Structure formats: C-alpha cells, structure tokens
Amino acid sequence: MSPNPFDPAARLTGCSCGAHASQAAHDAGHDARLRRAVETTLLRAIFPNDTNRRAFLRAVGTTTATAAIATIFPIAAATEALADAGPPEKKSLKVGFIPINCATPIIMAAPMGFYAKQGLEVEVVKTAGWAVVRDKTLNGEYDAAHMLSPMPIAISLGLGAPAQPYRVAAIENINGQAITMALKHRDRRDPRQWKGMTFGIPFDYSIHNYLLRYYLAEHGIDPDSDVQLRLIAPADMVANLRAGNIDGFLGPEPFNQRAVYDGVGFLHVLSKELWDGHPCCAFAASQKFITDAPNSFAALMRAIIDATAYAHDPAHRSEIAAAIAPANYLNQPQIVIEQVLTGTFADGLGNIRKMPDRIDFDPFPWQSFAVWMLTQMKRWGQLKGDVDYAAVAREVFLATDARKLMQQAGLSAPATDTKSFAVMGRNFDPSAPEQYLSGFAIRRT
Amino acid sequence: MNSFISIEAIARRFGAQPVFENLWLGVPRGSFTCMIGHSGCGKTTVLNILAGLDAPDDGVVIVDGRAIEGPSLDRAVVFQSHALLPWRSVLGNVAFAVASRWPDAPRAVVQARARAAIARVGLAGNEMKLPAELSGGMKQRVGIARALSIDPKILLMDEPFSALDALSRGTLQDEVRRICTDTDQTVFMITHDVDEAIYLADRIVLMTNGPGARIGEIVVNTLARDRTRADLHRQPGFYELRNHLIDFLVTRSAALRDTMPPGHDNRHPPEIRLTPPRSTQETPCAVNS
Amino acid sequence: MTLSLAARGAILSLLILALFLAAWQIAVSGGGSAPAMDPEYAKLMGQSAVTGHSAMPGPADIARGLWQALRDPFYDHGTNDKGIGIQLAWSVARVAAGWLLAVIVAVPLGFVIGMSPLLGRAFDPFIQLLKPISPLAWMPLALFTIRDSGISAIFVIFICSLWPMLINTAFGVSSVRTEWLNVARTLEVRPIRRALTIILPAAAPTILTGMRISVGIAWLVIVAAEMLVGGTGIGYFVWNEWNNLSITNVIVAILIIGLVGMALDQALARAQAAVTFPQ
After folding, report:
1. Which CATH superfamily does the domain covering A92-175+279-438 fall into?
2. Band of the pLDDT at A215, cuts 50, 70, 90?
3. Which strands form A144-148's sheet, in the order they lie side by side?
4. What is the pLDDT of residue B88?
5. Same structural domain, C36 and C144
6. N or C end of chain C: smaller count of CB under 10 Å?
C-alpha cells in the first residue's frame, strides 16, 4: 500500500514498492488504494516540496488538511472517475506521432478502430521531429503523443526544455531498433575498429543514444572522444549513409530496413541482441491532461493497451503492416514495414534472417526502465548531481495505472513495478543504480 | 507707392553667411515683376519666401495688407521643374489643385474648372495624358494651368521656361503674357533671360551678386504695353533697355556688390526709367521714388 | 529569315531545357550491374538495390510524379495524407495571413518612420538588429510563447515579411521628391490628404518593391517552417516525401514550389507595375 500522504511522517518521495507492509496490504482494497493515489497526486501538486508538505501537515493536522483540500477539490469524485471510467470529458483528441515503427500501436489504433471502440475520435498527426512533438505536446496542441521513452523523464526534470510534469502512460514497443552500417564497412564488424567513425542518433534523450553509447563503450570506444555522434532525423540517416556522411546509425525502424532495401547499408546488430526487451518509445501525456480529462486519458490508455496487445500477436503483423504503411501513416513501402514487423527480413548482406521478436509490443512501463535511463543520463553527463532514481521513475512511469488498465483489458500484468534485466550481459539491479553506474569504465561522472 | 506685395527688411542666412540682408521691395497690384541676377544672388530664395516655402530670418513680407506665414492658395507657384505629379493625368494634376482650393466643390465643377484652365494654356485634348507623355513645353503649360486654375492673387514663377527649347519658350512666353495681361494678374517671376524680362515684365528688379546681395536697381519697362515678341526688337528704346540690363549683369552687378554708390538706400533702391530715345545722346536719369 | 529576339530566346531556352533533360536522363539511366541475388532475398529489396540502377529518378519519373500529383490535387486520405492542392492552399493561406499582417504593421509604421527623421533614427538600431535574424530562428521562441504551431508559422512569415516592407516604406516615404511636397504645401493640402494623395502614390513603387521582396522571402520561409513544424502545407509535403526517401516526389514538390513562388512574384510584379508611374 502507498504511504498515507496525509501522514506527516511518511515520505512520498520514497520508494512506493518498499512501502508495502505486506502483499496482503497491497491488495487490501482497490478503492482505498485509488483514493490514496488521488490524494497523493493532489498533495504533490500542492506541495511539490516534500518538506513543506510535512511541515504543513504537522502545523494544521491531517484531518484539517484533508477537509480543507476536499472543499476545493472533489477528491471523492476524482477517485471515482479513475475507478470506473465515465464518459470521456473530451472525445475528439489529437495524438502526435513520428512516422516510425515504434508508433505502431498509436497509429494502427486509428485505422483499425481501437480508438473508436473506446468512444474516442482520435486524429493521429504525423510530426516532423522529436523536438516538435515535445513542443506541440507542451503547448497543448496534442493531447498525448508518441515520444522516446526517456523524453518524459527529461521533460519532467527540465532537461532541454522547461520542466513540466510529464508521464509515460505506456511503453509502445520493445526491441525493434538496430545498428545499421554502411555497406563499405561489411568487413569491419568489430566495434574496436570503429574509432574515428561518425554515427547518427535520432535524439539526445533516446534509448538509441544510450544503447549506441553503451555498445561502443562496452567495446572500449569512448562515444564522446573516439567517434562522433550526430543528431539526425531518421530519413536523413539513410540519405547520409548513402552519401557517406555517416558510417552507421542506431536508428528506429523502418529506417534500418529501409537502408537495406535501398541497398546502402546492412544490419550490423539488432537492439534486441544488446538488450532483449528494452523499451524504446512511449505513449506520453502531460500530467495536466491526465488531471483535466482522466476519463479521456483512461480511454486512450485502454485503446493503446488493446492495440499493443493486438500487435503483440505475430499472427496480426502482416495485417498491421498493411494498415500503417500508406502515405497517411508511415508512408513507406509495405514490404519494408512487413519485414520489420514479421521479423523475416533481409539483413543487407545477402541473408534472410528470421527473428519474430525483432520488434515486440508490451505496454507495461517498468519503472526500472526509467531507473536505467536515469543511470545513463547521469553516465553521459545529461543529468548532473544527485537524483532520486526511484522517485522520478515512479512519478513519470505510471506503472499502477497501466497495470489496472491491462487487467481491465484482460491482459496479464506484472505484479511488481520493477524488474532486473541484463544489458549486454551486465546485470542491472534497479535498487542499486549508483553501484551500477560506478561499474562502468567509460563514464562522465 | 501702393504695394500689393511689400517685402520689408528681410534677411536670409545660411550659417553665418547672409544670402541677402535688409532687402526691401514693393510690387504693385496687377504688375508683372521680373527679378534678374546671377546665380547665388538669392532670387530663388526671395521667391520661396514669397511662396511661403521658406521663411526669412529677419523682416516680413506683407501681401495685401497681411504678413505671410507659410504657403497659401493665394500665391500659386510655377516651379522651374514643373513639379507635376507623374502618376496623375494632366486633368488629374490640375484638378488636384482645384479640389485643394475648393474642397467642397462637386466633382463635376472641379473637373470643368480644371478643363477650362487646361484649355486656357492650349492643351485641350490632352487632359488624359500622363506627364511623361508630354513634351517639356507642354508639361510647363500644365504647371501654369495648375497655378492659374486656383485663381491666385499672385502668380510666382521660378525660371519657368529655362529648361525649354527656344521655340517652346517663345510660344509659352506669348501665352503667359496674353493671359496675365488679360487678367491683370500680379506676377513675380525669376529669370536669367534679359529678352524674356523685357518682353514680359513691367518692372525688372536687378540683383547685385551674392553673397550679401542687394537690389541694385529697379528698371521700369517703358516699352509699349502692346508689344509683341515679333516686334520687340523694333520697339523704340529696346536696345537701350537691353544694353542697360546686360551692362548691369556683366559689369555692374559685380562692382556694386563691393561698393554701392553713395546715397544708396536699401529701403528705396533706385528706380530707373529709360525714356524712349528721341536722340542717342540721352542719358538715363535716376529717380528716387 | 530573321526571327524576333524573343522568339530566338524562346527557342534557345527550349534547347537548353532539352539538353538538360537529356543529360539528366543519360546520367540516371547508366545501368549498374545487377548484383547476384537470391530471388527470395531480392523480393525483400528495393528496385535500385536489385537492378543496380541509380536511385535518382529521371525526367520521365518526374513527369509521371507530376501527373500523379496534379491529376487529383485535392484528395483527402486522412490527416497526414492530403493532395498537393490542399497542401499548397495551406501554405499560401499562411503566407497570405502573415504577409498581410506585416503589410498592416509595416506600411503605417514605415510611413511614420519615413516622415519623421527623429523616429527614423530612433527605430533604426532595432531594425538593423532584428532584420538580419533568420526568420526560422524565431520559430522556437514563437512556439514557446504563442503555443500554437500554426500561428507560430504565421508569426514567422510576419516577422520575415516585416523588415523589407518597413525599410522600403520608410525609404520610399523619406525620399519623396521635395518639389511634390512643395506642390502640396503651396496648395495648403492637409497632412492626411497629403499622405494619401502625394506621399503614398509617390512611395508606392518602393513600397511594392518591399512587398515583392517580402512575399518572395515569405514563400522561401514557409516551406522551411512547415518542414519544421509539419502538419500541413507544402513544406510538410516535402518533408513527408523525404521521410519516405521519395526523391521523385520531392523534386515534384520543388517544381511546384518554384511555380507557385513565381506566380506570387509575378502577381506582385503586376501590382508593382500598376503603381509605377513613368517619370
């Protein structure tokens, strides 16, 4: 059970998982938990600083505080709203996406009717780049958007843009990226030979950046001094690879496969082979939207979770490829999308490879993903100073909501919010991020 | 003398250098006055002050009993460069002036009046042409039509014919003389051209050289009032008059700048009247008015 | 037989075009050798990779693409897939909105600056400082403050159209010939009437020159701005086709952008000719 936010002794910024008295307490009462969640959110909004909150509660007393806040905010109503979703407050929504395979659930939910099933009219709007998606979501043109999963963390922390509370409602895809190298490097498969090369990445706050840096560093290449990393839009990655401006890139699909299709590159390694089950993109929304239109948000989430579950089934992949390849969505040759989604693909070196889970879809926003990303943000100097890993992860990655909605959708959801995993054989324990961080030879801390 | 225009002790300086100082001049109503002088004697400045486009540093100009303060529709100007508005037709240019004079007049009245003014300078049929389609002489006719169209009390002309070829200049001089004589228009005109002054002017104001120019003398034109351009040189006294003017311009205008004759009074410059010669021995007599 | 200069020029133009197209066709049709490829594998690969042909489209491909785009310019297959006519309409509408706003601001302001040497001097440092800023540099600031990408795009058009018009209007107004102003003074024309009947027509050719420069810049900028913020417009169309690495459609869009830009320029040139007076 979450700590009582009205308890002056409780720390809201502490780890929520560790706070359970027992698993029985955790499952004790759905309603009490929801009410507590709403109250917590509310108090956090009123007192972003934990010390202030505690001082306030000590001063006026818990009961008074609850009553006072209840007069200006209908806690009961809000709790109810989240519990059994009423009709969406806002039916017609705009969701931004970047035309890459990561957005598959967001996109396919439109032509395949997942949004409509939830009573929503969603316009999925193609957007030119990550910074634009961020800006358009921040300024309210989009209600929710496809983002790189580290972006909401960065936005919430105020990295690269003014801090705004941002939430990862669901992970869209796992795996499904690759390091693509120019054909001329077909005989230089050992990364130790890559000193002096130039690589493309789609965004600073991207799993692509962290994975490529990780991969290079594991092979003794310092990504800051031994090679050059360049921020390049996915389509430009292929063009630059053709032109010889870059030697390779770690980019999203379908552009790795597109480089193969156009005969300019080969798939050096799939991201799945570095970290099986890594998150890539996220379905994200501002806290403001979640608070203002909880039913719309819940309906959107259900649609995305449904779509993700549908996409998870390999039998549906060809159908999805046909739905999202046209000009209105990804605007790519269908055969390219199909190779990405079905996992039967040309590798650019003359081989046909079969890897059905080359890309997969799993909505659960593991908070340990966020912790790992934070370690990498710190590792490469994007994030300076101390960070409360678990608190940020819990703030931004809405595991609880996702779990509830997954269960409602009849999906099996993980019981915990964190898990351990291995990246290139190195085990990651989310409860000991600093220790993990200090285990790297190449780092900027 | 009952002066319609009375220039009283005006001075104009550019920096410390006076163009002229303590300048006095009277212009009778209905007279045609020409001012002649070399460049730099300030004649255009005098005209601009009369027009109200420039203001004297000292002194005052009285027109019809009232000191002038700025430009007025009572004093129409014909500019040396004609200054037509090139985006307006001949009619448009003249009508612009008419509409300025009578802002409340109906359009038809304005147009009719403008057309009449255009006809008066012999440009009937060219109303719709743009200035660029006209010859230099025609443009200046439009300038004159524009000035006359507003029935000014005084017509001010700044070397209006200097940019024209000899033929056009002659015809235009005829037109101006006819119109001004017919209407008893008070005219003040600047010119370089001695023959033009003799033909047109009743009184010729001779300026000494600048800076610090003065009115050397005022020559009263005693030639017959019904003179024409064709018979001008046969008029008795024409050559005496002409020689006197040229002599002034060639030698005396410079000499007088340095030393004025004793008894010269800026307020009453000498008024010269060359009587028609009965014999060649006769000398001019100076009359102080 | 002698043809007029215009006719000979036209023939030469066509000849240059034909030569260019032929050279282009030859350059792209140089068939590389088809690499040996397993047929199953080949099915997964693109045309240029399989045949070894250049990925650069030839003139015939462009003509086909142009026909495709113009045959049905107003189709609407969803939010992100609309015909080129609709996209052009969006772009032209944005340019028109930003440009007209700039006219509304720049012409009166330019008038004031041009008529008052004091204000001219006072505004000059700001104009000189702001003028050379790339319009697109305003985009992040606009997005952040206006919080709407469509209006931001219009704002960027506004800001890039402003300076040429402002500077030209001020220059045109300040250099109205003194003799015309003197005509107005001797006719006792009141300031408002003088502004409208003397200064405006006298400065109109210069102002229109500014407007023409502005519309040219605006058209250049809108394409870039729409590539940046996306959503709709011809810039988005280019970006979307580039995202698909469809060189053919990118070239088609470039051609159409050029044609529309030319049309805008010609429209302003006509307006300019209409207010220009022979001296």
Report:
1. Periplasmic binding protein-like II (3.40.190.10)
2. very high
3. A121-126, A92-97, A144-148, A281-286, A166-171
4. 93
5. no
6. N
Which residues on B lie below 8 Å from C202 (Cβ)?
A: 85, 87
C98 with C35, same domain: the answer is no
Within a 10 A sphere around the Cβ of C194, how many other Cβ atoms? Answer: 21
C202-256 tens-digit pLDDT = 999 999 999 999 999 999 998 888 887 777 888 888 888 888 888 888 898 899 9
- Mean pLDDT of all residues in A256-281: 90
Residues of chain A with CATH 3.40.190.10: 92-175+279-438, 177-272
SS3 A21: coil
In a domain, C62, yes or no: no
Residue B202 pLDDT greater than 50, yes or no: yes
pLDDT score at A81:
45
Range A64-79 average pLDDT:
52
Ranking A194-198, A361-365, C42-46, C89-93 by mean pLDDT, the lowest is: C42-46
Does residue C29 fall inside a structural domain? yes
- Across the interface, which of C44, C50, C147 has its CB nearest the CB of A339? C44
Q: Could you tell me which chain C residue has the CA closest to the CA of B150? A: C187
DSSP string, chain B: --EEEEEEEEEEEETTEEEEEEEEEEEETT-EEEEE--TTSSHHHHHHHHHTSS--SEEEEEETTEE--S--TTEEEE-TT----TTS-HHHHHHHHHHHHSTTS-HHHHHHHHHHHHHHTT-TT-TT--GGGS-HHHHHHHHHHHHHTT--SEEEEESTTTTS-HHHHHHHHHHHHHHHHHHT-EEEEEES-HHHHHHH-SEEEEEPPSSSB-EEEEEEP-S-TT--TTTGGGSTTHHHHHHHHHHIIIIIHHHHHH-PPTT--TTS--EEE-PPPSSTT---EEE--
Quickly state the pLDDT bin for B164 (edges 50, 70, 90).
confident
Categorize the per-residue pLDDT at A302 as very low, low, confident or very high, splitting at 50, 70 and 90: confident
pTM given for the model: 0.77
CATH number attached to the domain at A177-272: 3.40.190.10
Q: What is the ipTM of this complex?
A: 0.85
C neighbours by CB contacts (3+ pairs under 8 Å): A, B
Interface of C with B in 161-220 (CB under 8 A): 177, 179-180, 182-183, 185-189, 197-198, 201-202, 204
Please report the pLDDT score of residue B94 as a whole number. Answer: 95
Structural domain that includes position C10: 5-56
Q: Write out the two tokens for C74.
A: 């107003």
**With touching defined as 3+ CB pairs under 8 A, do chains C and A touch?**
yes
How many domains does one find in chain C? 2
Mean model confidence pLDDT for chain C: 87
